[in-house]
Amino acid sequence: MRVALLVTCLADTLQPSVGRATVGLLERLGVEVAFPRAQTCCGQLHLNAGYPDVASTLAQRFVGVFAGFDAVVAPSGSCAAHVRTHVAAHADDPAAVATRTFELSELLVDKLGVTDVGSRFEGSVTYHPTCHSLRSLRLGDRPESLLRAVTGVELRPLADATECCGFGGMFAVRNADVSTAMLTDKLRHIEETGAGAVCACDASCLLHIGGGLERRGSPVRALHLAEVLAS
Amino acid sequence: MSAAASRNAPRLPFERAARIALQDEATRETVRRATATIRARRAAVVEETPDWAALRAAGEAIRERSVLRLDALLLRLEDAVTAAGGEVHWARDAAEANEVVVGLIMRSGAREVVKVKSLTTDELGLNDALAKAGVEAIETDLAERIIQLADERPSHPLVPSLHRGRPEIAELLREALGEPGLADDPESLLAAARQHLRAAFLRARVAVSGANFAVAETGTVAVVESEGNGRMCTTLPETLVTVMGVEKVVEEWRDLGVLMQLLPRSATGERMNPYTSLWTGVSPGDGPSSFHLVLVDAGRTRVLGDPDGRQALRCIRCSACVNVCPVYRQTGGHAYDTVYAGPIGAILQPQLSGEQGTSASLPYASTLCGACADVCPVGIDIPRILVHERAKVVRRSRPGLDGRALRALARAFSNGERYERAQRTARALQRPLVRSGRLRWFPGPLAGWGRSRTLPGVAPQTFREWWEERERGA
């Protein structure tokens, strides 16, 4: 199976380790990964900021760049959700684009049919279900079932797990104070688990959570699901 | 006590009002507790309802059908109410609605009216219009009465005094009712309030209510409440004036069967609503002898004209979206500068006021987390409308610094080479700002990020550079 990686603009530019881990994991599982180099951004940022014209242009572009692959995978619940709910409508066959686009844990569990990816990670981890993976993609138990199967991982429950971390793209900048208040609650709950790392399926939310942890000098690491599964 | 609660508080856009609200730790704790309680109650009664999904779908269909057929249903409602002995008045905007109500009351000769809690009359500023005409409006819903006595703005659509803790409320009632010995426990407070309100009910010759629903088929108006005050207001006085937004109409009597199941579960977490008053025109010898229904547009037909925004008119004012909203929970309702706080307010108020003034900031008062859409009993896709409203705000306003930055970013995203060039440029520009691989200070519109977060800079090797290197090596 030939799978195209939608690395996402944020992971590409700011967190390349998430992209590298995704590639490493999929190749270990025998998947042929392609990286269409013409890709830029799915347009979610612009749609949410109030620029639907830009988002549509980027969506049309996206459809062309990712045409012809068996599947497209993104290490980001919100970008995958955006492709399904918005980008797909710009394709000749919207349903086909929507159904062949996967967030990483969906690809692993639904398409590849694996929950034990054969990895080993020593340490305690708490899982934060990001909003789009929870309420738009309805990932349910998929990420946690993958984490539970990792040798050496101790999965710790997170209080008020389904609460938003306060990122919301431009929200974190425009409403920085409210965003900070939400993040403060999230970080407190993460630290209360005593886990050494917080794991999620969205590189962007992890940018936010990780940036907050780093700012307060916390020893807790923010890790993408791909980074735990690739180890 | 929060200054932001005062009716005289300055009217600020959400981001500025929220900053002030966040400094009031005591109020935030009150809001957190109250919303947590009500959310848990709602979750429990929704969980136990086996056909919730089907009920919700039915509620959505009923409200959607009502909104799309407003033109026909309102005329049918007018006919039915008139046939049952009521009188129907039409008002284009707040000024017209208030003029009609004030006129009716002046003609009745009353100089005091009792009121059933009504968001619509709050929206219209009816109490101020009445005061100007020399008519005292006495709110009879306890929470509404509390903020009226305190001269505050509502902070929650259903529980306007949600921002107030019980000790504060006790203090307020001791002063307002002239009972310095009044104890803090709920029973004592309720008993004192009941005494105070009972006198007003018995004096009242005119009552003013809102309406939860009106049935076009029968001309029946419904008011749903928990304290019995609404029942008093709709039965005791000689004259009843009901002020209703035009979107509240439903087609058939049996539609209420669905909505009356959805509303109490979503609103207060109750299986059944405590006091449901339904009346059809007037009945000789029973209840008010004179009934007036004021149908108010006040921006609703403008909302109806926007196919992507009009879902907001389905709203049945349950507040479930408010109670689950993580933004509301941090700021409370006063930051929103509307009687419709929370997610529903963030999509409804901008549409009602044409995306003008402080309402233009409301569509941005959300992370688009989607918790609101999950609980809405009539299936309003609130996140989608928030995004739609943002686009309307952008179209209306002159591009600011962030707008220009987003346009520049759009150009960078428009092709792969340009994008890679932008990555390299950003990496060069960030050099003086990066300390051990992280950005800790952010210029201009991005400064807010730095208040509580650092950011990894553009990576020394982006993912695509790594991929490229690997391909070459392979």
What Rg of chain B do the Cα atoms give? 26 Å
The largest sheet of chain B is: 6 strands, parallel
Number of helices of chain B: 22
Which spans of chain A have pLDDT < 50 for at least 5 consecutive residues?
none
**Rg from Cα of chain A:** 17 Å
Which sheet architecture does the biggest sheet of chain A show?
A: 4 strands, parallel
Helix content of chain A: 40-55%
Helix segment count of chain A? 13
Coarse morphology of chain A: globular
> Superfamily at the CATH H level of the largest domain in chain B?
NagB/RpiA/CoA transferase-like
H/E element order of chain A: EHHEHHEHHEHEHHEHHEHEH
Strand content of chain B: 5-15%
Which oligomeric form is depicted? heterodimer
Give the overall silhouette of chain B: globular
Strand line-up of the largest beta sheet of chain A: 2-1-3-4
The CATH class label of the largest domain in chain A is Alpha Beta
Q: Overview of this structure, please?
A:
The complex is a heterodimer of chains A (231) and B (474). Chain A is an alpha/beta fold and 231 residues long. Chain A contains 13 helices and eight strands. A four-stranded parallel beta sheet of chain A has the order 2-1-3-4, with helices on both faces. A four-stranded parallel beta sheet of chain A has the order 6-5-7-8, sandwiched between helices. The radius of gyration of chain A is 17 Å and the shape is globular. The mean pLDDT of chain A is 97. Chain B has two domains: 277 residues, 3-Layer(aba) Sandwich (Rossmann fold), CATH 3.40.50; 73 residues, no CATH class. In chain B, strand 5 and strand 6 form a beta hairpin. Classes of the chains: A alpha/beta (231), B alpha/beta (474). The interface between A and B is large, with 63 and 63 residues.
